[in-house]
């Protein structure tokens, strides 16, 4: 590999990042996971430092200079939006820690059953402070952005982007329709972070009122309440399926995907005995298991489609899917960085002895007290797993 992947003098403009004729294309996909997004930030810091050196970009280098599309779900959308606007990882870290400490303050009156646990207005205020009055169609984006959320009132998954060629970016011919380009960025990100029981849904106006119709407000919740908590596969679909308007080509040397997780909590739920055998608790356990299955299936398909130097064993039966590419050859290049909150994994991969009880506590998504410890773990894992050869030259 050459010493420099891409000269600092050859940064792509926003239009060039989206231009399908300029290849290869690079996608950065960021998982949901609450305050465990600190792990994501630690991995991104290592990637930023590595690419700054390899591109010769100097202090002005940003991840938006390397990646043509950055997308995220929930906490990943907060980070993705900042990166797409040209923020450094250190800048995002500062905003993220302030948001975490100001928002996640539990109340004995809000238990997640009768009312949401946390105040969504504080999230909105924090996001407005960072993103201002920008919309998805505002100038100033440095690269492509996708935010993933779930419209609960219709049961549909929404893929919202700043791509001017997206089908609903502009008005679709109906005077009442509010085009995606007019959606406030803070509101779109707030929608993606509206995890049920933690935060109230976000309402975004989809259609304006007229003499015969009321305005339509879509009710949006966390994109993680779907198949998109790990957004890597959905971002590949968005980039390559014609309906989304990107029109990028697939191929091992044409499409590179970097996927960063927020830590994989232990999936062992234990037998349903005692109070856990009650119907409501059993249903919650089953739902968590389904969401875990969705995340695992995304990794299975991404490995199946790709050449992946970071492929992990999916389970004892499958192992990794290295060499099992769909269609007889890799359709993309893919790497996945994550931490597994399992004592055996920590011992084997990081050389650290942790009791499972402590790891289960660190895996909670809403504990600001964990953030510094998670940052240390993320930095250690990033040093262990992120490699220069994982990133292709143009």
Tell me the number of helical segments per DSSP (H or I, 4 or more residues long). Answer: 12
- Give the biggest sheet: 9 strands, mixed
Structural class by SSE content: alpha/beta
Percent of residues in β-strands: 5-15%
Radius of gyration: 21 Å
Morphology: globular
Distance between the termini: 11 Å
How many individual β-strands?
9
Reading the helices and strands in chain order gives HEHHEHHHEEHEEHEHEEHHH
In terms of quaternary structure, the protein is single chain
Mean model confidence by pLDDT: 89
Low-pLDDT sequence parts: none
Helix content: 25-40%
Can you characterise this structure?
It is built from twelve helices and nine strands. The chain has helices spanning 14-18, 37-55, 63-66, 75-84, 89-103, 120-131, 185-192, 232-240, 279-305, 343-350, 356-362, 371-385; strands at 25-30, 69-73, 144-151, 156-161, 202-207, 216-222, 255-260, 306-307, 332-337. Strands 1, 2, 3, 4, 5, 6, 7, 8 and 9 form a nine-stranded mixed β-sheet that branches.
What keyword list fits this structure?
single chain; 394 residues; alpha/beta; nine-stranded mixed beta sheet; globular
Secondary structure layout plus pairing:
Layout: H1 14-18, E1 25-30, H2 37-55, H3 63-66, E2 69-73, H4 75-84, H5 89-103, H6 120-131, E3 144-151, E4 156-161, H7 185-192, E5 202-207, E6 216-222, H8 232-240, E7 255-260, H9 279-305, E8 306-307, E9 332-337, H10 343-350, H11 356-362, H12 371-385
How would you briefly describe this protein structure?
With 394 residues, the chain is an alpha/beta fold. Helix content is 35%, strand content 13%. The longest helix has 27 residues, at 279-305.
């Amino acid at each position: 590999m050459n010493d420099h992947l891409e000269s600092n003098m050859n940064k792509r403009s926003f239009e060039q990042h989206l231009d399908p004729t300029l290849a290869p294309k690079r996608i950065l996909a960021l998982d949901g996971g609450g305050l465990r997004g600190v792990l994501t930030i630690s991995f991104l810091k290592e990637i930023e430092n590595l690419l700054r050196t390899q591109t010769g970009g100097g202090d002005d280098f940003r991840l938006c200079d390397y990646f043509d599309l950055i997308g995220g779900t929930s906490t990943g959308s907060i980070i993705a939006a900042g990166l797409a606007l040209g923020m450094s990882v250190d800048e995002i870290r500062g905003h993220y820690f302030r948001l975490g400490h100001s928002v996640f303050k539990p109340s004995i009156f809000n238990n997640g059953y009768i009312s949401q646990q946390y105040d969504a207005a504080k999230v909105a205020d924090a996001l407005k402070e960072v993103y201002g009055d920008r919309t998805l169609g505002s100038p100033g984006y440095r690269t492509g952005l996708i935010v993933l959320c779930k419209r609960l009132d219709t049961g549909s998954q929404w893929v919202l982007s700043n791509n001017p060629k997206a089908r609903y970016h502009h008005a679709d011919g109906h005077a009442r329709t509010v085009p995606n380009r007019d959606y406030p960025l803070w509101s779109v990100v707030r929608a993606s972070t509206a995890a049920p029981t933690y935060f109230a849904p976000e309402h975004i106006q989809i259609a304006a009122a007229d003499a015969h119709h009321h305005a339509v407000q879509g009710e949006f919740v966390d994109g993680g309440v779907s198949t998109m908590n790990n957004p890597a596969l959905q971002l590949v679909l968005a980039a390559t399926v014609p309906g989304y308007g990107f029109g990028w080509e697939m191929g091992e040397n044409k499409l590179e995907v970097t996927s960063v997780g927020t830590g994989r909590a232990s999936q062992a739920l234990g037998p349903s005995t005692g109070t856990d055998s009650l119907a409501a608790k059993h249903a919650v356990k089953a739902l968590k298991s389904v969401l875990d299955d969705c995340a695992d299936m995304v990794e299975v398909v991404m490995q199946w489609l790709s050449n992946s130097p970071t492929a992990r064993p999916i389970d004892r039966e499958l192992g990794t899917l290295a060499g099992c590419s769909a269609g007889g050859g890799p359709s993309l290049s893919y790497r996945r960085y994550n931490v597994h909150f399992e004592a055996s994994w920590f011992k084997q991969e990081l050389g650290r002895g942790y009791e499972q009880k402590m790891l289960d506590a660190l895996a909670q998504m809403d504990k600001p007290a964990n953030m510094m410890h998670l940052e240390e773990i993320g930095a250690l894992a990033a040093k262990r797993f992120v490699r220069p050869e994982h990133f292709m030259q143009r």
